[in-house]
Design a protein that fits this description.
8-stranded mixed sheet; D-Maltodextrin-Binding Protein, domain 2; 2 domains; globular; two-stranded parallel ribbon; alpha/beta; 10 strands; Transporter substrate-binding domain-containing protein; single chain
Length: about 250
């Protein structure tokens, strides 16, 4: 137990000043309990939806989250080293590559990897193997497109979906690979939706919440809540609300 008189004398403070400082420090530590800090990849539609949904999951557990939107590589660094408590959502293989992060077993969202290209070119892209003949651009550090293009000879990494589509529009790449909805939103934002076409989804990836091993006590609780909300239909409702909110925020 802290001796306030001794603490005050040591610092040269009055007892009242020492009491106020102690209360501030104590209250700060109390309010910090139950707050977990996660990374999300900046600018991506699915990540913004995930933040909304994950907030709802943690709220039902009487816990709070704080999310930092970061470039994908930095998000991975801060989550895997324990600077943050984990990541909002990543695909399955992310956990294989980052063993310090524990995958919450039940996926709570998904994304569709889709090819965007100039409408006038009418590219024949129906399967992943069709991509081999084209020059591709992907967002740096995003795992679903990194995995798909791992053995591809002509891939350039850029910092955002907007840059991918601009590259394709200017003829500097044949195909931009990204999540379908993210690409549609970006093309509309850039006023390129009339000039760009897109393929049918080439791959579907479930998305999982990842928690640093330091906080592994959370994994079972969060997974159980996701499953409960999934069974009741609440997860679908919250996800629909999240999607609508994110879509509205982009207009």
């Amino acid at each position: 137990m802290l001796n306030l008189n001794k603490f005050a004398n040591h610092k040269g403070w009055g007892i009242r000043q020492a009491t106020l400082i102690f209360c501030f420090l104590y209250c700060s530590s109390v309010f910090a309990e139950g707050l977990y800090k996660y990374a999300a990849i900046e600018h991506l539609f699915e990540q913004k939806v995930g933040i909304f949904v994950l907030n709802a999951v943690y709220k039902k557990l009487d816990l709070k989250i704080e999310v930092s939107a970061l470039p994908a590589k930095r998000a991975q660094l801060e989550a895997s080293t324990g600077m943050l408590d984990g990541e909002v959502m990543r695909i399955w293989s992310y956990g294989e590559q980052n063993p310090q992060l524990i995958r919450v077993p039940t996926p709570y969202y998904s994304l569709n990897t889709t090819a965007f290209y100039l409408s006038e070119r009418s590219l024949a892209i129906a399967t992943l193997s069709d991509l081999q003949r084209y020059k591709l651009v992907v967002v740096r550090g995003v795992k679903h497109t990194a995995d798909i293009t791992a053995n591809h000879n002509h891939v350039e990494q850029l910092n955002s979906t907007d840059k991918l589509l601009s590259f394709v529009h200017r003829g500097r790449a044949d195909v931009a690979l990204t999540n379908k909805v993210d690409g549609l939103i970006a093309s509309k934002r850039l006023k390129l939706n009339q000039q760009l076409a897109h393929s049918a989804p080439l791959a579907v990836f479930p998305l999982y919440h990842y928690i640093h091993e330091r906080e592994q006590h959370l994994v079972a609780k969060v997974d159980e809540m996701i499953q409960t909300m999934l069974r009741s239909g609440e997860l679908a409702q919250v996800t629909e609300q999240a999607e609508q909110q994110v879509l509205n925020s982009t207009h």
